[in-house]
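agent> Task received from the user: take the single chain below, predict its 3D structure, and emit structure tokens. No templates, no multimer pairing.
agent> Plan: (1) validate residues, (2) run structure prediction, (3) serialize to tokens, (4) report one or two observations.
agent> Step 1 OK, no nonstandard residues flagged.
tool_call: predict_structure(input=
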Amino acid sequence: MSAPTVTRRKSSAPKVDAFQLITDQVIEILDAGVAPWRKPWNAETGMPLSMSSGKAYRGVNPFILAMQAAVKGYASPWWGTYKQITGRGGQVRKGEKGTMIVFWKMLVLVDEDTGKRKMLPMLRTYSVFNADQADGDLGLPERVETVSGAEAIAECDAAVAAYLAAGPSLGIGGDAAYYQPSRDHVQMPELSTFVGSEEYYGTLFHELTHSTGHSSRLARKELLESHRFGDASYSREELVAEMGAAFLSGMTNISAATLPNSAAYLQSWIRALRGDKKLLIHAAAQAQKAAELILGITYADNES
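)
tool_result: status=success, residues=304
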């Protein structure tokens, strides 16, 4: 399907700043002492799912929805618009508030004066409700995925092995975890030195996400531009790695913790997000690409 064509016209209507609204939601949670990408979905119910497609949300949306589910105590992984819920025979309860999510749509813009055409990504917003906010039988399947530790570890190892077969080298040992772009090398301490398996794999996923930014793969400018602690590129790349680790943890059915939720750590993200309202959504998009590269996932279209 081709992208829709629109003519650019000036409008006096106030614009909704989706970037700022999303960022404000995350800053509110950070102020409460929680990093939403640390454990962005419930390990028992799985990733947030769309009622319309039956598939997991992508981009920044899983973080937004899981963050809300954690705060509100929703047990269901299913989310849908008011119309989708009523179409299934349900009814959103009076007083319930929806959660805003975002969706990228490509438009063809035609300049009225020059007639020139160009592609423009447009960020659209939707309000969705969790199934727990509605009454009635919505006809949704139960999605409770209880996976034993051994099975989760096996799935993680399989995902890592497939990527490492043609990816960066991996060394085990020492007391530091890092990715070295010049050698295209990931170094990890022994599994036995970690508090638990989830901490180990969360850290490994973090470093492997860094490795996807190598010039031979996604050539992510945040990784290639700078490696100095604390500068803008470093902060952006660390956020990509954090979110990438969270995506991979959710996709392999584990709940990972990679870095401590220290006050200084959380405040550093608050400062970064307040300084760049587009940072969160762009970082989530980069993290999604990284996770899909590691797992060998491809999509035919851009689903939210």
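agent> Step 4: summary for the user.
The beta strands are 5-7, 49-50, 78-80, 91-92, 99-110, 117-130, 134-135, 169-172, 178-180, 185-188.
agent> Done.
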